[in-house]
Amino acid sequence: xxxxxDESAWPIVRLRWIGTLTDPDVAAELARIDGYLARGERFGLxxxxxxxxxxxxxxxxxxxxxxxxxxxxxxxxxxxAAVMDNMIQRTLYYGxxxxxxxxxxxxxxxxxxxxxxxxxxxxxxxxxx
Length: 129
Known about the structure:
Layout: E1 2-9, E2 12-18, H1 23-38, E3 43-48, H2 57-69, H3 71-77, E4 78-83, H4 87-99, E5 106-109, H5 112-124
Parallel strand pairs: 2-3, 3-4, 4-5
Antiparallel strand pairs: 1-2
């Protein structure tokens, strides 16, 4: 099914994850995020994964490799909030980020309103980069 992307509230981008993602879905979204990074402006990415399917192992590997490759840009420009409806998924997300910290601010939420409010506060803070 793919992603629905809403850029109307820039610098907050809402990304709704719907159903099971194909490899072309993942590639297209990573390219879109690269476009945001190329703007050279801080932005918040709200990933709403409620009801979405998981990534395949190959897709996870691709996303992780891409994030590592872009770490020099994501550290400067990206703030990310993930919305997950499953408490176990949220706990795992939190735990992984404790063990392997992200180069950019990221936090997991149960509801999109709280995620968007957090993104707004984070984007309002002055940067050190």
